[in-house]
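User: Second chain of the day. Same drill as before.
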Amino acid sequence: MKQIWNSFKIAFSMYSKIPMPRSEWTKENMRYVMCFFPWVGLVIGVLTYGWYMLASYLVSIGITLTASFVAVVLVLIPVVITGGIHLDGLLDTSDALSSYQEKERRLEILKDSHAGAFAIIICVVYFVFYYGVCTMVSWGSIPVIALSFVVSRSLSGLSIVTFPMAKGTGLAATFSDGAQKQTVKISMIIYIIIMGIGMIWLGQIRGIVGLAAAAVVFFYYYKMSMKNFGGITGDLCGYFLQICELTMAFGIVAADLIMKAL
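Assistant: Same format as last time:
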């Protein structure tokens, strides 16, 4: 039980800004860290759904909140909770992919702490597009989007214990080497199944479209990583997670709009 509790603390201290008691990063304590990674997504999902409920209630009692303000908070919740750790992977990977260099040089760019021009461009485009998606969120789509934060992290965790590593060092390699891979793999699959059923039950076609979007991005993530980097790294995991969340949210909202139009 102590190892499991320590793994929980490490998962939240690494992948969120939620205060946690300190825990030693020993091999024993690292075994089940990835099992708790999707729980960070659960926190984000609860806060996302809770904020939308609160905003709707405030509007219902006469307190004016603009749709833009509601959308901005929806955009910021994941960033505030995670501290932007996955966004860093999105930006680093964007720079590496845009360099059109050899694999070794791309891996070096991933480690570069400086943000290039392409990273800035992608960052702006990402947030503008995500904001646009959040302005179209409704009661029919918000519970499905809330669950999608768990799905994206479950897929990311699954990739860490199943995809080849691009190098033997780095954060992803550390968690992969220290993980009880079979336990993590089974846990991620269980999370995906439970959340998938929940998404379909709550959103019907919205949930199906969201899961289909996640599957497409997951396939692209594997192909892109193998072709351009020879495997995955922590930055590539972050890149996948951000693209997956955005694509799922867009698919869910688009399906919601189509359902309303029919």
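Residues 33-60 form the longest helix (28 residues).

User: Great, on to the next one.
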